[in-house]
Design goal:
The complex is a heterodimer of chains A (130) and B (357). With 130 residues, chain A is mainly β. Chain A is built from two helices and eleven strands, in the order βαβββββαβββββ. In chain A, β2 and β3 form a beta hairpin. About 7% of the residues of chain A have low confidence. The longest helix of chain B has 15 residues. In chain B, α7 packs across α8. In chain B, a hairpin with a 3-residue loop joins β6 and β7. Chain B folds into three domains: 98 residues, no CATH class; 90 residues, no CATH class; 122 residues, Aminopeptidase (3-Layer(aba) Sandwich). About 2% of the residues of chain B have low confidence. Chain B has a ten-stranded mixed beta sheet with strand order 10-12-11-19-13-18-17-16-15-14, sandwiched between helices. Chain B has a five-stranded antiparallel beta sheet with strand order 5-4-8-7-6. Chain B starts with 18 loop residues before the first strand and ends with a strand. Classes of the chains: A mainly beta (130), B alpha+beta (357). β2 of chain A pairs antiparallel with β1 of chain B.
């Protein structure tokens, strides 16, 4: 996994983890479904998932191909992020209700050259997993 | 995306549903590559099955229409709007207070520049350029009445050029055609740039093509809202092979609109690895306007790279004391979004009518 990252006019190098920490204590405010990818919006920060994420709830793991995938991921709307981890090329966002959304950060043939992009436009932050 | 202009909800016929957004407050937004329809209680009907949002399965059902085109729009005034697709319908109940369907439907629109908004020096230089281009005094650009002029910088252009700077339109015609059309053109109302039907009625069979309405926007150091990225930089002479590869990947029509000769010092590119996926370039208009064009690799569209490239080039232009100018057809919603995102404010709106030779 390679990561391109950038932060603000100053061009200072900021750790990916520090950038992602900006969504901790923020609610999932919107979920955008586009034809072959989706975006998770956290009040100004956006995680674009070119790989399909999985949702882990107390009922089990729901995959993109599962019936009700969109209902499950949208059931996290308004839930507050408690932590964000990167573990073995996988991004995991954990919510206050105990559920989590996981995203593989390794591009696949289906996702194209990028697995995901995290951005906070107001802060000039852009992280690309490719 | 179709190139037709969408002004009202009925115009969504033939438009493609590009995305569906579910928002924390319970709203659902249906995006048609720019125009957005909003509802809190949409109903999907697929294969005789009715699924109401937010019931279980409704999100999958509503998203099943993504990438499909609207085939019909039915207004069951005042109760609902029904968007029909080949595979089913989305029915959107209309609140009683929204009989005109206005609150449900919105179009992306960059804010309008005013004399007080844009840097005064930039505004005066832009006015001077356009006044010279049209062959009039800068004070004539914003009139209460339509101003008819013979072509100045447009030279022997066989056509009618209409541009509106915030007042009544300024209309330019070939010198030998002025008197033939004076009585009609001088009666054109403000807003004719967005009414091609009025123009078509005047020139009729003579028309070869109508181009526009087009957004012409400027930004300055105060209005500009950059998107920074390490993926972009000014192109170097050593990037020519990557530039040629981008040209080979783009359809000819796209390249004609946004591509240009390789001019590394006036181009910002976005790189994915060693591959160049978007290029913004500028040409100098007059002495100080940097007219920006953009082209994006077909496999990398919809990911914000055009915005990143234009942002970088705009920053470079401002550093060079140039006035960044962004022009796009208003029907090109993707480009309009780039303009709005980066802080390009509307300076003028144009419509070009090319005559048959």
């Amino acid at each position: 996994m390679k990561t391109s990252r950038e932060a603000s006019d100053s061009r200072k190098s900021i750790a990916v983890e520090d950038c992602l920490a900006a969504i901790v204590e923020q609610p999932l405010s919107a979920v955008v479904f586009v034809q072959d990818y989706l975006q998770l919006v956290f009040n100004g920060a956006c995680l674009t998932c070119y790989n399909w994420p999985t949702v882990q709830t107390e009922s089990g793991t729901v995959f993109h191909c599962s019936h009700g995938f969109r209902d499950t991921i949208c059931s996290q709307l308004a839930s507050v992020v408690t932590k964000v981890d990167i573990m073995e090329d996988r991004l995991v966002i954990t919510f206050s209700n105990g559920s989590d959304i996981g995203l593989s950060l390794v591009p696949t043939e289906e996702s194209g050259v990028e697995a995901g992009v995290f951005s906070i436009p107001a802060q000039g932050i852009l992280i690309v997993w490719n | 995306m179709s190139q037709k202009e969408v002004k009202k909800i009925e115009d969504l016929v033939e438009e493609e549903l590009s995305s569906v957004t579910f928002i924390q407050d319970g709203r659902v937004e249906f995006d048609f590559n720019g125009p957005i329809v909003t509802s809190t209680e949409p109903v999907a009907e697929i294969e005789s099955q009715t699924i109401r949002f937010p019931d279980t399965g409704s999100r999958d059902a509503l998203c099943a229409f993504i990438a499909n085109k609207v085939t019909a729009v039915k207004l069951d005034d005042p109760k609902a709007i029904t968007l029909t697709f080949v595979t089913g319908t989305i029915r959107i109940p209309v609140p009683a207070a929204d009989c005109g369907h206005i609150a449900l439907f919105k179009l992306p629109e960059p804010p309008t520049v005013t004399i007080r908004t844009l840097d005064p020096l930039f505004l005066s230089l832009a006015d001077a350029y356009w006044a010279h281009f049209l062959g009039c005094s800068p004070v004539k650009l914003r009139n209460d009445r339509t101003l008819l002029l013979s072509h100045a910088e447009l030279g022997d252009y066989a056509g009618c050029y209409i541009i509106q700077f915030g007042g009544a339109p300024v209309v330019s015609l070939p010198a030998n055609e002025i008197e033939s059309y004076r009585h009609v053109v001088e009666a054109w109302p403000t807003g004719v740039v967005r009414s091609p039907s009025i123009v078509r009625a005047v020139f009729g069979e003579r028309i070869k093509a109508v181009i526009g309405p087009a957004f012409i926007g400027y930004t300055d150091a105060k209005l500009f809202r950059p998107v920074n990225s390490v993926m972009t930089r000014l192109l170097l002479s050593t990037d020519e092979a990557a530039y040629e590869a981008l040209r080979d990947a783009c359809p000819a029509e796209d390249w004609d609109h946004g591509g240009t000769l390789f001019r590394p010092e006036e181009m910002a590119g976005v790189f994915r690895g060693k591959r160049l996926v978007a290029v913004a370039s500028y040409k100098i208009w007059g002495e100080c306007i940097a007219h920006i064009s953009i082209v994006t690799h077909p496999a990398f569209r919809g990911r914000g790279y055009a915005t990143i490239a234009v942002s970088e080039l705009t920053q470079i232009a401002l550093t060079r004391k140039l006035i960044p100018q962004f022009r796009t057809l208003e029907s090109n919603q993707a480009s309009m979004v780039v303009a709005a995102r980066l802080g390009f404010f509307r300076y003028a709106t144009s419509l070009a009518v090319r005559f048959k030779s």
